[in-house]
Every structure is written in C-alpha cells, then in structure tokens.
Amino acid sequence: MHGVPFSKGAGAQQMSSESGRHIRFLRPLGRGGFGAVHLADVTTSDGLVQRMAIKLLHGELGLDREMQARARDEARLLAQVNHDNVVKVFGLTEIDGRVAVLMEFVEGVDCATLLLHARKHSGAGMAPRIAARICECAASALHAAWAGVSPQSDKPLHIVHRDIKPTNILLSRRGAVKVMDFGVARGEIEREAETAAYSFGTRRYMAPERILDRTAGHPSDVYALGATFFELVTGTRFETLAPREDAFARGLAQRIEEIRDLEESWGTQFVGSGLGKLLAWHPEDRLTAAEAESMFGSWGDALPGPELRRFAQETVPGLLEHREKSLGDDTAPSGSILTHHSFSEADPAPSRSSAVFRGLGLALGLLGVFWGLQQRQGDLEEKVAPASVFEEAAPMEPPNPEPSAPEVTAPATDPAPPAKTRSPPPARTPRVAPAAKEVEAAIADPLPSPANVLEWVSLKILADPREGRVEVKSQGVEVGERITLPVGAHTFRYTGDGWNVMCRVLVTATSRRIKFLKDGGSCELY
Predict the structure, then answer these.
(1) Domain coordinates of the chain in residue numbers?
(2) pLDDT in tens, 195-254
(3) Is 330 noted as a catalytic residue in this protein?
(4) Which residue of 46, 84, 245, 304 lies most exposed, with the fewest beta carbons within 10 A?
C-alpha cells in the first residue's frame, strides 16, 4: 500500500494506473485538532472524475495503526447507511501511508453557524419552521441509521450516533440537510479497532441514562435532537439537566415554559408538549426517531417562517464565502497524488464480532485521556459526575462549521494508568493579549503544519459574559467547549452578543484555558 507524495506544484501531475486513483487536491474545507477535510477531484482508472471531500488525519496521528483501524471502521459503518440525509462514504484509500476516507462533498454550513448568524442579525434563534424542517430531516437520518438493514448481514444496523448537536447537522446551499460525524457512533459491524468502556458525546446533549449509566441507545439520540431543536429556536444554550429525576423534571418544565412563551408569538400551542416527548426522563417514554420525524414534519407545515430551500439559497452562500476567506491561507495539500491501493473486500477481513463499534472519536478520546492523565487530568475534559453531586442543573457557559471534538469520560471503575512523576509546573499569571487593532498584521500567519507538530493542547474556552463563539483559523467552537491546537502562536477571533475580541497569544504545553473579557476587549491565557 503506497501513495505518491503530495505535489507542491501549482499544476496537477499527469499520472495513470490501472488499479489506482488520481487525486487532485483543490482547497481545504475544514480542519480540527486531529484531522482535516479537503476538497479534491478524484479520477478513477477508467477516467471517471468525481468531486469529493477527503478526510485525512494529521501527520503522526495518520500513521498510527490503531487510528487507521478506527478510520476504516467509521467508513465501513457509514458505507452501509444509504440515506439522503446522511453524508455518504464512497471509499477508502491510502495517501502517504495514511488512511484517507473519500466522502460526499456537501457545499454547506452547519447549524451552529446558522444559529450564530441568526443571533447576530435578529438577537434570537432561527425561524421555527426552518428549525422544524432541519430536525425532521435529522430524525429521518437517525431512523435510517437505527432501523436500516445492513446489506452485508441483512440485520438492522442499530447505529447510535451519540453526538447529535448543531455542529453535526449540515445545511447545503440548495436546502439539503445532512447528518455528519459518525466518528463516535456505535453499531454492529465487523471491526478492526479495539473497544473500551468510555463515554462519548457533548455533555449538555446527553440523556440522563448516558450520564448515570453510560447507556447510549436509540432514545438518547432522540433526546439530543430535542435539545438541538431547543437551541435552534431559542438561540440560547440548552443547559444540562440535572441527572436526578425530581430536579430533571423541574429543569425540563422551565425549558418547556420557554418554548411556550415563544409559541404565543408563533400562534401555536403544541410545540412545548411535543418537546417534552423528546426530552422525557425515561427512554421508553420518548418518541422514536420515526415518530419524531413525523412530528417535526407536521410542525414544519404549521409554524411560521420561510421554506427551507429558499432560506438556504438566500443564507448559505454568504456564509460559505466568509468561511472560504478564512480558510484561504490554511495549510493544505496541493497538487496531485496517485494512490495505488484501495481497501476492499479483498483485504484481510477483520475478526467478526457483534461487539459495540467505537469509531474514530474513540481514538481521539483515548489520546486526550492519556495526555490528561500525565498532565492535568482534571482540566482536560468535563467529567460526567454521579447523580449525588447534583442538586439543580449548574449554570454552564453558553451556544459551536467544523465539528468540535466530542467530550470523553473514562468510567470511574476503570483504574487509571500510572501517571509519570513530574514536578508541579511553576505558578502562572494570566497574560493579557492586545486588542484587535494591535494584531491585525498577524492574522495572515498560517497555523503550523500538522505533520511537523508533535505536541497538542486542549484549551477550555471561557468568556465574561458567558456567551459567544471563538474561531482559530478553520476551527470554530462555542464558549464552554474545548479547542485542540498545536503548541505555538495563534490568533483567536471571539464573537459575542454585540462585542468582539481578536488577540494573538502563544499557546504552550502548560496552557489550559483562554478567557475573553468584554471589559477592555482582551483575552487571558492560563
């Protein structure tokens, strides 16, 4: 299995091979802490050309055998789901020894970007009809992933996404809705990668059984979709509901009351009660994805707002243009490569098992947990705590187009690997970064090339007031979430409700948090 190295020339190399693919990279589409997605033209040995999105892990990560196995597992899982609202996988290949997933190119933006756009222009959430139509399509995708039949085994796929949220739902410029990032999904497939008992997802979208029992089933995806709909129509963060039934019921009643207040202006009286059926405490009391699809469809017929297709045509192109400008100088492969091998049924088959699938996200999570145990485990990810520590849902920082990495929690019963002995780090004082006008000249500096970066840092994003979104190059996350960056200098762009901050800071191996302050228009790195 070999690949021709990236060509750095401006033109495409002229190559041919009876069994290979000719890939010409065009431009970056997005980039996260562990991987990147590129737009490319893929030419088969028969001369057929197709424009695709190609997902590659960064440098050293892409050469890791376990990471490669998980990438192949994710692709095999998605390849079995044939649905209009799920991003399609067309194949697997290798590029410079790294697994590359060839995926459907969706020219669109995620719902977190749409929500931020709505809040900036109206100070509120999206039009309820638009939110209902988007969630109708997402529910249809979840139903297909769960109830669809595997073409290999003729049995239900029983795929659980486990990380449904606005950032993982795309809207194309033509109005098509696509659910993406099944990298932390579970399903019954032949798998190569090892599995482990870790809990994945983004905490505020987690159903109570996921927090209490780490049980992720079909109803937990429906719960996350209900939380997503709440954020889309209110424009506010769906705060985590306390995982104790009485406190949960009080918190849910408050959320439903917020929706009913909005319904007075919508002229409806059914959305609040319907939301309660999506967010019920007991999994068996929730609607199925098929029932949720029907409910959202009826809401889309009755709620006010424009038609989804027209909304997409008027809104998405401008957001795409803004994103492309921000990605214009991003580090990316250029030129052409030729792949001489594609993964197929002829490859050695992985051992057969009906065990639960852990996708690419598990590998990312394990790296994060291992790093944190050696550095400062309590700071790396927000733990899913037992119910006894909750009284009421604690206030959290408020609503992330590239999908943010899901949170990972190691089970309390698993013994932690021995941490390396290390002296405590020296005391650090916050560094106040200059205001935007002082760092404009630094914006064009590209991020370090991932292939040359050996050390990465996970930063918690904070702000005072607690709302807004932060962008670093092609990554975008909300306040309260984390962003993974290589050690080095980075320009952070913060957008809040009526205020903005841009600052340039040096991220070191000991950095843990960055906080944006409205007073003074500055940021502090801890």
Answers:
(1) 108-314, 426-526
(2) 444 456 788 999 999 999 888 899 999 999 999 999 999 999 999 999 899 999 999 999
(3) no
(4) 46
CATH code given to domain 426-526: 2.60.40
Catalytically annotated residue among 163, 246, 347, 519: 163
Q: Which helix (H) or strand (E) holds 408?
A: strand 407-409
The Cα 391–Cα 194 span in angstroms is 37
Beta bridge partners of 494: 470, 501
Per-residue pLDDT at 213: 86
Q: Please give the Cα distance from 41 to 38 (Å, whole number).
A: 10
Question: How far is the C-alpha of 61 from the C-alpha of 69, rounded, in Å?
Answer: 12
Q: What CATH number labels 108-314?
A: 1.10.510.10
pLDDT at 325: 77
pLDDT at 495 over 80: yes
**Predicted local distance difference test score (pLDDT) of residue 147:** 93
Residues 428, 504: Cα–Cα separation, whole Å: 18
Interval 405-431: pLDDT, tens: 455 444 444 444 444 444 444 444 444
Is 283 in contact with 220 (CB distance < 8 Å)?
A: yes
Whether 108-314 shares its CATH topology with 426-526 is answered no
**Phi, then psi, of 459 in degrees rounded to 5:** -105, 135
**Coil, helix or strand for 98?**
strand
> Nearest-CA neighbor of 241 among 271, 275, 203?
203
In order of 5, 153, 154, 173, 222, the CA distances from 315 in angstroms are 38, 42, 41, 8, 27
The SS3 of residue 324 is helix
Q: Which two tokens stand for residue 161?
A: 């996404």
The residue ranges of DSSP E strands in 96-240, in sequence order, are 98-104, 108-110, 169-172, 177-179, 199-201
Residue position matching structure tokens 């129509």: 233
| Cα–Cα distance measured from residue 12 to residue 2, given in angstroms and rounded to the nearest whole number | 19
